[in-house]
Amino acid sequence: SSASTPIRATLFPGDGIGPEISESVKQIFKAADVPIEWEEHYVGTEIDPRTQSFLTWESLESVRQNRVGLKGPMATPIGKGHRSLNLTLRKELNLYANVRPCYSLPGYKTRYDNVNLITIRENTEGEYSGLEHQVVRGVVESLKIITRQASLRVAEYAFHYAKAHGRERVSAIHKANIMQKTDGLFLKCCREVANKYPEITYEEVVIDNCCMMLVKNPALFDVLVMPNLYGDIISDLCAGLVGGLGLTPSCNIGEGGIALAEAVHGSAPDIAGKNLANPTALLLSSVTMLRHLDLHDKASQIQNAILDTIAEGKYRTADLGGSSKTTEFTNAIIDHL
Amino acid sequence: SSASTPIRATLFPGDGIGPEISESVKQIFKAADVPIEWEEHYVGTEIDPRTQSFLTWESLESVRQNRVGLKGPMATPIGKGHRSLNLTLRKELNLYANVRPCYSLPGYKTRYDNVNLITIRENTEGEYSGLEHQVVRGVVESLKIITRQASLRVAEYAFHYAKAHGRERVSAIHKANIMQKTDGLFLKCCREVANKYPEITYEEVVIDNCCMMLVKNPALFDVLVMPNLYGDIISDLCAGLVGGLGLTPSCNIGEGGIALAEAVHGSAPDIAGKNLANPTALLLSSVTMLRHLDLHDKASQIQNAILDTIAEGKYRTADLGGSSKTTEFTNAIIDHL
Ligand SMILES: CC(C)[C@H](C(=O)O)[C@@H](O)C(=O)O
Ligand SMILES: CC(C)[C@H](C(=O)O)[C@@H](O)C(=O)O
């Protein structure tokens, strides 16, 4: 992709602090001369009075056409019959893998140093089937669905990612000692794919043990791949190791190479509109989007500017113990470009 | 219970290092004059040649009669049709709540100070139903079952425990934003019980967020109560905060006041019989058993001796970076009694 033909990318700023942190991304992309033209759509909990819609067909179609997008936080609409918008997007766009790089930010101290993990989460099935019912009064059941197709697909993605990024080990996380058939199928698929990547070490780790090992010594892991709910849990745990969801990027991968990067933190309505939000998670997510587009120079330039600004420590938002406004932090990043 | 009539308690030493660490408990109880008479039964993966059994009726009946017991680690028998012996015991004895105190050991440094948490896990249903099947080739499902009865029972236990131990807060851990019916029922039951304990603060925390908060700041929590799988995951995570399963006690509570304390770590066949095992988890579990029997003086005496020995640091087993034998560590505890 040459700098002369801009790439169209969808932007869903989202709810709450979404618009402010999206503005930060737009300004930094502009300052860095990133050849992206944003196509902005509103998806969120404020209903358009004419369409009465939280999510329009045009918004979905925009991502389908552009094949690449960035989304801010979205609250879940209140009222019956509404699933989380996050889940609806995953489903409608068939975003089958959620990739979350999780690394220590230089200069931002937590209990852990040199964390450098990638969690890859199956994003479409498992415990998120939505199939639940009451059997008799006081007895309810929910169905966890694991398919060969979705398991192979996410395993393929994980090994492909590991190889492309020079990673050495893939750990499949499971509870197949209890759920022998469902998690057993997931593992079987991972093993099949692992056989095609002899250069990558493959191991299987039970989820409870994995969580214990992660908090004791995260360096034991490299790339982790897992079914939906385990991925939900472990990716947040990993984010906690380096400071939380406000600092960690995320990117959803769909069939045919669609990528929808997203900040997975909440919409923080309490501080919305106050110029207090930390745009780091959305910014680092936009970096994963650039890498997906093979715009590695721009990606590195922006990523380094973000990390340098945080490391310098002069401009930090309140959640990191500083007193900078969103715009001050953004300008500091631009100065570091 | 007066010192003159000994209390009969069942002991399942278990597999691997089980007999050695059980020996440590027996010697320390003897040295501390604990009025317990052990009734020892073998439950484990070595089949009795005559009975061809991993687990005899007599062993189960011993716990049912004595109402109190201690178990070491048990490996899962190899071969078709065998569930984990741990699970079989939970089921047969209706051990509905698994209580795991998790606290920092003075003098044993981890990344976390002053951890002091109690996880209470529903131990009989949820994702552990064992109900799984293949729908069509390549599509498998497993059933998670949540019942009002089991949820109320474990919630009651958690609030009762919190009150009895002067704890201020109970957090119910869930994923009801996704599993609205199953985890929703669990929460509903917790709320009903919470209403009866106005002096205890009740809150609900989504499991992914809980894991992130736990690794960032475990002091945010006090008593945590949750369905089976979440409890499996979070109790191991919490153990990791203070050093791992080799250092944390566990006690299973059954209907009618049965208590089966257990070390939840593995049977470590690689070091079995070498006098290298760390008996701390089983010892601290035996302390929870004594507290269950209201033998608080003996419990405190033994607990302090264990903690003092570890804090002193002179005698530590290899897993804690020392070079003491199991017996040396045990004798050091006896000296501290
Ligand atoms: C908001 C919620 C439905 C969602 C999930 O459970 O997947 C969130 O936790 C995430 O990880 O994106
Ligand atoms: C061994 C295994 C079946 C067991 C469980 O999953 O409950 C273990 O992890 C535990 O926590 O006791």
From TrEMBL, chains A, B:
Domain Isopropylmalate dehydrogenase-like: 8-333
Sorted UniProt keywords: Magnesium, Membrane, Metal-binding, NAD, Oxidoreductase, Transit peptide, Transmembrane, Transmembrane helix
UniProt key word Transmembrane helix: yes
Signal peptide location: none
Example GO BP: tricarboxylic acid cycle
GO MF assignments: isocitrate dehydrogenase (NAD+) activity; magnesium ion binding; NAD binding
Subunit: Heterooligomer of catalytic and regulatory subunits.
UniProt family annotation: Belongs to the isocitrate and isopropylmalate dehydrogenases family.
The protein's name in its UniProt record: Isopropylmalate dehydrogenase-like domain-containing protein
Organism whose genome encodes this protein: Canavalia gladiata
